[in-house]
Design goal:
3 domains; elongated; mainly alpha; three-stranded antiparallel β-sheet; 9 helices
């Protein structure tokens, strides 16, 4: 064992808290064994009343087995408590030091003892050994609104939430935050924005023709690519004159479709090129096979030609 006389109060209490945690864990096993015993004894009484000899034998065996187990566990628990004796002795030798406990619930207050009049016999506490040996002021600075006004009557009124957190709740929160960060990273990897980081907005066809260019947000890179390919197909048939009035394109509509495709490409191509770290020219080259494939599919041609 380390020389306790050279350790800080926080170090001593941290070790003592770990000993107590082991003790309570062992005692929970004791209580569980005793519950089995109580259940077996109840079955034994029922079996005796019914004359069920086989069940009586099983219940007696169960009681004997769990009684021995409970006694063994209790001895282990008692041995664990003795490990903390030197720590308690050092606490007394130094005349004690400041300690703090947190009530184990979502709105629990921080107390200077487990005997606060605002608490109940059933109140569950979490020891905060990291604050052992500090001053009330240092604890209050972190507890803020969590500081019990009975235990700390001199604490100033502070409506800010405290930064003290139960270890289990902190671990759960950190896990949630880590999982959220992974989801956000995955979303960002699949997402897209304008080159300056602002939201990518794409107007509707009618919005473009009306001059209403605010548009709706496009957040996924895949969606932006699909829209860009559609616009490039329109650009191709316009440039190559594939669809003429004779082939079903109404007179006067070419200009509208050119305006629509130009505006969409003006927004989509820079965003996609920036996302992929390439030039717009390279992007067009990369998308060309998809544009041609969509053109052939939509217009039911096996090879491109007029």
């Amino acid at each position: 064992m380390h020389d306790l006389t050279t350790q800080t109060p926080a170090e001593i209490d941290t070790a003592l808290a770990a000993i107590q945690a082991r003790y309570y864990a062992k005692m929970r096993e004791v209580f569980q064994a005793r519950r089995y015993i109580a259940s077996a004894e109840a079955n034994l009484i029922t079996s005796t009343a019914r004359g069920q000899t086989a069940l009586m034998t099983v219940d007696r065996d169960t009681i004997a087995r769990y009684t021995a187990k409970a006694e063994s566990l209790l001895k282990e628990a008692q041995a664990i408590t003795k490990e903390g004796t030197p720590h308690h002795t050092e606490f007394q030798r130094r005349g004690g030091w400041f300690r703090a406990w947190l009530v184990d619930n979502t709105s629990g207050h921080v107390h200077s003892s487990t005997e606060c009049s605002t608490c109940y016999p059933t109140t569950e506490f979490i020891w905060l050994p990291e604050y052992s040996g500090l001053t009330e002021g240092e604890l209050i600075a972190d507890a803020r609104s969590m500081a019990c006004t009975i235990c700390f009557p001199n604490a100033p009124v502070d409506t800010r939430p405290g930064i003290i957190e139960a270890p289990a709740r902190k671990a759960a929160r950190l896990k949630r935050e880590a999982e959220a960060a992974v989801r956000d990273a995955a979303k960002k990897a699949k997402g897209i924005t304008n080159p300056d980081g602002s939201e990518l907005l794409i107007p509707s066809d009618m919005g473009i023709l009306r001059g209403d260019l605010d548009g709706f947000p496009v957040q996924a890179e895949r969606t932006a690519e699909i829209m860009a390919v559609d616009a490039l197909v329109t650009e191709k048939i316009l440039q190559d004159g594939y669809i003429t009035a004779e082939r079903g394109w109404r007179d006067g509509r070419e200009a509208d479709f050119r305006t629509i495709s130009n505006e969409k490409l003006r927004r989509l191509l820079p965003a996609l090129a920036h996302k992929r770290g390439i030039t717009e020219e390279t992007l067009r080259e990369n998308l060309a096979p998809k544009v041609l494939a969509k053109f052939k599919k939509d217009y039911r041609v096996k090879s491109y030609g007029h």
